[in-house]
Design goal:
Elements lengths: L1 H12 L4 H13 L3 H11 L17 E5 L5 H10 L3 E2 L1 H7 L11 E9 L9 E2 H10 L2 E2 L5 H8 L8 E4 L4 E2 L5 E9 L2 E8 L5 E2 L4 E6 L2
Parallel strand pairs: 2-9, 6-11
Antiparallel strand pairs: 1-3, 3-11, 4-10, 5-11, 6-8, 7-8, 8-9
Helix pairs in contact: 3-6, 4-7
């Protein structure tokens, strides 16, 4: 998929006049700054890219530790040994190169908000929700947050489903997935949901994210 996107980009770039190409190069340099990425996405949605957004006062919901285990298999064992369940797809994406564990033990503060609390009234695309999280001064979670939250969120209320705002990881069949931390009638789960950019989320869906440093 990435190679296809790069091929399309190169084919378009070589057709541009030099004046426009210079503008594109300037923009590419600026896109190393997360603020520019967020503003460019707003511009493409025909919104004011520099309009200030009033950030809700989300308070720290929970502090967890990352890097508690030396590798993925040890982390998986710790989760299941504690009586939690890992769905097949969650187990699969934990084995992908995109999933890593922190090399050193660190603490990380987590925040939560529903899709509605992030400012959306109806079903909303996953990529739009993630962009809004960044616009409000927060950022997406490291992927390790999903399994670690499952292991450390021992008193999760029944019927609570938490969506981990993260860069989606491709399952073996190619579907983009993100972690869900859930408590249903069958127990306490680490599961997954579709994380494709155009996937729609209900306004009641609750996301987990972290503060931008």
């Amino acid at each position: 998929m990435l190679k296809d996107m790069l091929g399309i980009a190169v084919r378009k770039l070589v057709t541009l006049p030099s004046s426009t190409l210079g503008l594109v190069c300037d923009l590419l340099e600026k896109l190393s700054d997360e603020e520019w990425v967020v503003s460019t996405k707003r511009f493409l949605r025909k919104e004011n890219p520099w309009e200030a957004i009033t950030a809700p006062d989300f308070r720290v919901w929970k502090t967890i530790k990352l890097g508690t285990h030396k590798d993925v298999e040890c982390l998986k064992s710790a989760i299941t040994d504690a009586g939690f369940r890992i769905g097949d797809w969650a187990s699969d994406i934990m084995g992908k190169p995109a999933f890593t564990v922190a090399r050193e033990e660190i603490e990380i503060e987590l925040f939560t908000a529903t899709v509605a609390e992030l400012g959306f009234k109806g079903n909303t695309r996953y990529d739009v929700i993630c962009t809004r999280i960044c616009e409000l001064g927060y950022k997406l979670c490291p992927a390790e947050v999903g399994p670690q939250l499952r292991r450390q969120h021992t008193d999760q209320p029944i019927n609570e489903w938490l969506v981990i705002a993260m860069e989606a990881i491709a399952y073996s069949d190619g579907y983009l997935c993100v972690f869900y931390v859930a408590h249903d009638d069958e127990g306490l789960w680490l599961n997954t949901g579709y994380g494709s950019p155009d996937g729609l989320l209900d306004p009641r869906g609750r996301f987990v994210f972290v503060r931008r440093k």
